[in-house]
Amino acid sequence: MSDLTRLSAAALADALSSGETSSVEATQAHLDRIAAVEGAVHAFLHVSTDEALATAADVDARRAAGEQLHALAGVPIAVKDVVVTQGLPTTAGSKILEGWVPPYDATLVEKIKAAGLPILGKTNMDEFAMGSSTEHSAYGNTHNPWDLDRIPGGSGGGSAAAVAAYEAPLAIGTDTGGSIRQPAAVTGTVGVKPTYGGVSRYGLIALASSLDQAGPVTRTVLDSALLHELIGGHDPRDSTSLAEPLPALVAAARLGAAADLSGVRVGVITELQGEGYQPGVLARFEESLELLRGAGAEIVEVSCPRFTYALAAYYLILPAEASSNLAKFDGMRFGLRVIPDDNPTAERVMSATRGQGFGDEVKRRIILGTYALSAGYYDAYYGSAQKVRTLIQRDFAAAFEKADVLVSPTAPTTAFKLGEKLDDPLAMYLNDVATIPANLAGVPGLSLPSGLSDDGLPVGFQVLAPAKADDRLYRVGAALEALLENEWGGPLLGRAPELETR
Ligand code: GLN
Questions:
Q1: 225: helix, coil or strand?
Q2: For a Cys-Cys bond, which of 43, 127, 185, 229 suits 410, CB 3.0-4.6 Å?
Q3: Active-site residue set
Q4: At 91, which CATH number?
């Protein structure tokens, strides 16, 4: 079969089960693609060629022996480098973890391995998932396959770029404030942040524990549903893991593809549009709303007035939790250890290690976080931010009385130029205005491509649902995807420029 890298995961899974191709062939095709385009894209920090091919060969042998396999068995996948993988280097994009090889697997990696998906490698990211452009990685930039001079979003720019550049049909991301959805938006891919607690956090290197959630990055809505069902579900090793089973996500995506949304109320969030949003982003958003209306959805306007404070609350809560989570990187336990020449006391080793091991953005947030948590300021900063968080949750609750799903543009702009916002942390933080409210409230969100802006770059459409109703994301997302692809005559990524291969 030609062009195995262009197939969706669902189509590749079908080709595997019908015997049209083998997992070794499919995995090799992706490894070849990685070899051909990585020089331009740099989506991966580590490519695990031998391990991936060994898994593929094992799956092929089990299939040949007639064993009953998982639907995605043999379909290769890339994993963000913030997720621990036994035997594969894991750095979280930081020098402080350079050379660390975890002794165990994250729960979601265990599930991926048990289902027989070959792991192609670990993807690039902003250091400890802090950023919106992947430029804060200690290991160099990832480039957006649509325009190599532009950012692929962040923090999970590596996963999104790998999927957009056909280096992997599936990838894992993590989303603390938008790091799955915003990279998906700016690369023309699909990304889902599940309900908080829907996918185990065991084995994710924590950024902000009350916000972090792992989820799928794919090229189609159905593929995200398939991957979400594989990695989700209760895990006794994560104390915030939800006890109840996931809703039927794949079924919802298949239902949605029929593009009949009669009876579905879609709420447009007043506060997440208008000023600060690129005209082309708003234009694509309006067109998508018209398509949803045409499919029978009832479009209502809903106001969430406290969303205006979401970014400010997030940049107190996240640094506070991050400063605590990152305290364990002290040069004693994992990765880098810097020993100063004179008087190397434990404290001076820790200080030298953290001084050299962490980048500027990480240091900035540790300083912010320890300040917000310090005795005299705790109530004024961290305490107030937690109260705002409750108000945002109430805004969501009120909005979901009026609508079954809420929608907005995923990000205010398309992919900006590499370097453009690097020296302006506040401008960088603004990329997540539309995605952060969902993390603060724990509700699920999906981003799918809704067309190209006037600059020829992809625009994302965000769908949000109440906690534990992730199935609604897939129903509405698959419907909009079907309607848009019908207009375009195929997937948006089909219009991306061909990458030069070598
Ligand atoms: N860009 C946001 C931040 O820098 C989101 C990060 C994330 O979701 N991991 O915090």
A1: helix
A2: 185
A3: 80, 155, 179
A4: 3.90.1300.10
C-alpha distances (whole Å) from 206 to each of 105, 432, 456 are 15, 19, 36
Does residue 160 sit within a domain?
A: yes
pLDDT tens column, 393-417: 999 999 999 999 999 999 999 999 9
Residues of the chain whose pLDDT is less than 50? none
CA of 21 to the centre of ligand 1 (A): 39
Is there a domain that residue 407 lies in?
yes
CA distance 182 to 488: 22
Kindly give the number of the ligand 1 atom that is closest to the alpha carbon of 179: 8
**List of residues 6+ apart from 137 with CB closer than 8 A:** 45, 93, 124, 125, 126, 127, 158
Ligand 1 pocket residue status of 129, Cβ below 6 Å: yes
Question: Measured from the CB, is residue 247 less than 6 Å from ligand 1?
Answer: no
**What pLDDT score was predicted for residue 2?**
60
List phi, psi (to 5°) of 375. -45, -50
Residue 130 beta carbon below 6 angstroms from any ligand 1 atom = yes
Q: Which domain holds residue 460?
A: 3-256+270-307+390-495
The answer to whether residue 37 sits within a structural domain is yes
Kindly state if the Cβ of 453 falls inside 6 Å of ligand 1.
Answer: no
Do 372 and 320 contact (CB within 8 A), yes or no?
A: yes
Supply the pTM of this predicted model: 0.98
Pairing of strands 119-123, 298-302: unpaired
Q: How many domains does the chain have?
A: 1
As a dihedral over the C-alpha atoms of residue 363, residue 369, residue 371, residue 374, rounded to 10 degrees, the angle is -140
